[in-house]
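Researcher: I'd like a structural prediction for the single chain below. Treat it as a standalone chain; there are no partners to consider.
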Amino acid sequence: MTGQDHLSAPVCEPKPLDDAQLGLMHAWWRAANYLSVGQVYLLANPLLREPLAIEHVKPRLLGHWGPPPGSTSSTST
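Model: Treating it as a single chain, here is the predicted structure.
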């Protein structure tokens, strides 16, 4: 056993996702995008327990948006 053996992952044959796996991945992606949008744009009512109103939206975006937009884009590819 060499010092590098622990770095190599077991090789498995790639195969298409079944409908259940694809549905779970799509749900995760939608949830991640929802959270990203909420962090960037919403000031209040993040769970939308009442209809979205202009008062819930930040009046202007300040600073950097941080990792959420890039994170959901890069992990969805």
